[in-house]
């Protein structure tokens, strides 16, 4: 057994809107080891993005506990959550989520500007390195609207990895890409995994899921299946 990085116990998430109460997640218990590559699948509305938001400390659960690297992060302040998130977690979204009035360099730098441990020249070096990694260093001064979808997602990957996070959370990262650009993003994720990153990727695509080590299926806010991917079983 490796080191447990993420441990969820009996996580619940309820959204209250007007008179409606939505139980987005119920009884989620889950342990993810450092260095694992996990896929999360299930029908639209089953709670995948909610789970990723909780894992990424973008939101808090309604019940249950979350331990990250052995620390209980269930009840910490918003400020503490942001601090951990900015240092430890990189996000990649289906719709890229770049900021349209910031150029490429500024978009990638943005999460690093919240880090008190980095000065401007350190940040610039990290930004350049991340953009070289995704082959976008020649587009520093371009704005998102001047880039193709594939290029925007590569910039978003650079933004996610620039701070050298221990966890990468990807919510349908290839959902808006053609097959060639999707493959480029999948290969980047695989390289990051090979270098030791822990990755949780939400995907609709069974073939993408098979490229992870482990496949979790969610239905109606509950884990209904959690097993090694068949590629792992063949390899073993
Ligand atoms: P998925 O990503 O699997 O499509 P989500 O996690 O986005 O599903 O949503 C799970 C359920 O929670 C859905 O019923 C959705 O409508 C609801 N939900 C998600 N976010 C909110 C929110 N901020 N307020 C109210 N309901 C929400
Ligand atoms: Mg979603």
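-> sequence recovered:
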């Amino acid at each position: 057994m490796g080191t447990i990085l993420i441990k969820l116990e009996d996580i619940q998430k309820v959204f209250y809107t007007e008179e409606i109460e939505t139980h987005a997640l119920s009884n989620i218990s889950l342990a993810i080891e450092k260095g694992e590559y996990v896929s999360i699948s299930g029908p639209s509305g089953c709670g995948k993005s909610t789970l990723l938001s909780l894992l990424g400390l973008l939101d808090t659960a309604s019940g249950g506990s979350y331990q990250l690297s052995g620390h209980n992060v269930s009840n910490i302040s918003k400020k503490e959550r942001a601090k951990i998130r900015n240092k430890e977690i990189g996000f990649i979204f289906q719709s890229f989520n770049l900021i349209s009035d910031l150029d490429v360099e500024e978009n990638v730098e943005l999460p690093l500007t919240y880090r008190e441990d980095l000065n401007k020249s350190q940040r610039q070096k990290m930004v350049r390195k991340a953009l070289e990694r995704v082959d976008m260093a020649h587009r520093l001064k371009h704005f998102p609207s001047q880039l193709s979808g594939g290029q925007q997602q590569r910039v978003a990957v650079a933004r996610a990895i620039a701070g050298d996070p221990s966890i990468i959370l990807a919510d349908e990262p290839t959902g808006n890409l053609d097959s060639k650009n999707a493959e480029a993003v999948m290969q980047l994720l695989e390289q990051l995994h090979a270098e030791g990153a822990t990755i949780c990727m939400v995907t609709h695509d069974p073939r993408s899921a098979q490229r992870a080590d482990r496949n979790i299926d969610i239905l109606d806010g509950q884990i209904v299946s959690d097993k090694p991917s068949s590629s792992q079983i063949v390899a073993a």
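The longest strand covers residues 4-17.
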